[in-house]
Amino acid sequence: MKVVKVLLSVLVVLALFAGTALAGETIKIGVLAPLTGFAAADGESVLNSVNIAVDKINASGGVLGKKVELVVYDDRADAKEAVSLAHKLIGQDRVVAVVGGSYSMPTRAVATFFQEAQIPFVAAYAVHPDITKAGDFCFRNGFLAEVEGKAAAKVATDMLGAKRIAVLYSDIDFGRTLSKGFKEYIDTKTTGVEIVYSKAYPFKEKDYKPYLSEIKELNPDLIMVNGYYFQTGPILKQAREMGIESIILGEEGADSPKLVELAGPSAAEGFIIVTNLNRDDERPVVQEFIKEYEGRYGIAPDMVGASAYDALTIIVDAIQRAGSTDGKAIRDAIASTKDFDGLTGVIKGFNEIGEVVKPVQVQIIKFGKYRYFGVVDDPDIINP
Amino acid sequence: MDLFIEQLMNGLAIGAIYALITSGLSLIYGILRILHVAHAGIYTIGAYVGLGVYSMTGNLLFAILASMAVCSILGILVERIVYSPLLKFPPYVPLIASIALLLGIEEVMRLIAGPQIHGFPVSLPLATIRVGNISLSSALVMVYIVSIVIFFVLWIITSKTDLGLAMRAVSQDMSIASAMGINSRQIVSLTFAIGSSIAAIAGILVGIYFNQVYPTMGAVPAYKTLALIVVGGLGSVPGAILASLLLGIAETLLIGYANIPFPRDALAFVAMILVLMIRPEGLLGNIKKKI
């Protein structure tokens, strides 16, 4: 009996050692994304894209001689859900860094916890300013809503020559801040341009005809439409059905292949957005990703997934340069990122708040697909 | 003036959509005195079945008929399996069962078809109507035509046929109706079948009108239609339709002329509170008949 006990304890000890040895062979990076719930399509895009990134990294030998292992959790785009998952990533999974692949509300809620735990956190595409303000361990690879608003205003006035503009925005933080940036640029940087209409619609709105009827009466040169693809898609459809012929300009929330489905191909044609993915960028990193994504999943990639891909590769690049998985060392390496060959453009670096500095892409829908239209890289717009 | 007329037409279309969902609910309330919240679930299923059949066959009429058939059967099953055994309990018991059923339907649809929003890509064989500066899109025209036809058929059934007479008899007193030789069980089932097939049409219509079909599309109608049948007068189908049309117009005009981002869904409940205070029997309800 005693022999059995001794043997058992030896086995247990061995198993424990084996466990730690196995765990030590990979570098764990956390990913939070909305895999179910209203934002599920975005969560899926994040998951698909980080999987491509991690396969590519591991195929070329991993980082610091170890394989990268992703720990992916579904936060349902819900702040409460995200907070408990953040604690799980910190306490149980002991990840070395985290990709924030979710919307502003959950991302904003978890940023402070990663800051306290000194785990570097890169928000992929969430736009709320508070995320990076949580501290020096928090970074953002997407644009601030205000940057995007200003870039959109430049596109509207400089590239498209609009003089009379209507603004229709979603009544959430994102929409309010974006339209503020848009109007600020019009007020301070342009002359002879007039905002003839500006109204917010509630987030859950389905019928935009009451707004569009008013806009139609004003007949503006351009309508700036803010919202996610499940909002801008129907807006485009209803506007064209009603015979509105103004140019319609949107932003990254509309950067999804789902937009064309919800707007219908003819209403979507010619729709222009400011975003951070240029599908016609000839750098190999972009073209290889698009090819791989379409081959694996049978659909076109979007800006959400591309941003998550970059958030992960920025972290891995930083670990490589830091030569360590220590939180502080990775943080410093991310902060000193320079001219990184990212999927969402050449990333010039991060400013002292942790905001990315890179050009804003302008895309137009041609034959049902987003294509290159232009780029905004004025330093006073893209430096937040 | 053009703008006002256009807004009125927009509002009327939204009202007609509400009316389609609410009329079935009102019919069912009238006969069983239960709040059939899961009606909005049947409407969701109707949209999905319509979309599924349409994408397989490309025939919209066939999709509508298939969806009506599936929803009628589901409606009858819900009544037989869920409500019938619960009728002996206080009214909140079937209500809770109904809420559970709605949530269950939403989750099942999510598991089957995924959480994403699906488009409903139908090109309508209708032209945009233009009168001067006012244009009525083909989607609006479709909503008007379909709802007028449905309401007309519903009116014929309930007031001009023996079936309608039997339905009214059962709704006034089920046991006396049975004593007079009416097969009450059959009438109840038929009422569920009619109400549910209208919900199926409403689901498809909404799917096409907004080009969106998704698992939780019944969530807002589920509670809004409850407010509407109270405003219209419990159990009164014409009242429910009138209340729906008025609400659709009121919502649209409020958004068009007020400068605040008003959540339109709140308006139905404001209307319900006002009606309960001023005219508790509802717009067209007759309180004495019910007692």
The total number of structural domains of chain B is: 1
Shape of chain B: globular
CATH superfamily of the largest domain in chain A: Response regulator
Number of strands of chain A: 16
- What is the arithmetic mean of pLDDT of chain B? 89
Average pLDDT, all residues of chain A: 91
Helix content, binned percent of chain A: 40-55%
Task: Give the assembly state of these chains.
Answer: heterodimer
Observed structural traits:
heterodimer, A: alpha/beta, Rossmann fold, 2 domains, seven-stranded mixed beta sheet, 15 helices, 16 strands, 20% strand, B: 291 residues, mainly alpha, two-stranded antiparallel ribbon, 12 helices, 2 strands, globular
Please give a structural write-up.
The complex is a heterodimer of chains A (384) and B (291). By secondary structure, chain A is α/β, with parallel strands linked by helices. Chain A is built from 15 helices and 16 strands. Chain A folds into two domains: 10-143 and 282-350, Rossmann fold, CATH 3.40.50; 146-275 and 363-382, Response regulator (Rossmann fold, 3-Layer(aba) Sandwich), CATH 3.40.50.2300. Chain A has helices at 2-24, 40-59, 79-92, 104-116, 130-133, 145-159, 173-189, 209-218, 229-241, 258-263, 265-268, 284-297, 303-322, 327-335, 379-382, and strands spanning 26-33, 67-74, 97-100, 121-123, 138-140, 164-170, 194-201, 222-225, 247-250, 272-275, 340-342, 345-347, 349-350, 356-357, 360-366, 369-376. The longest helix of chain B is centred in the N-terminal third of the chain and has 31 residues, at 2-32. Chain B is built from twelve helices and two strands. In chain B, strand 1 (129-131) and strand 2 (134-136) form a beta hairpin. Chain B has one domain (14-221). Chain B starts with a helix and ends with a helix. Chain B has helices spanning 2-32, 39-57, 60-83, 92-113, 138-160, 162-172, 174-179, 184-210, 219-232, 237-257, 265-278, 287-290; strands at residues 129-131, 134-136. Chain A binds chain B through residues 36-38, 40-41, 171, 199-202, 204-207, 209-211, 213-214, 216-217, 230, 233-234, 237-238, 241-243, 258, 261-264, and chain B through 2-3, 6-7, 10-11, 13-14, 110, 114-119, 121, 128, 130, 135, 137-139, 210-212, 216, 220, 251-253, 255-256, 259, 261-265.
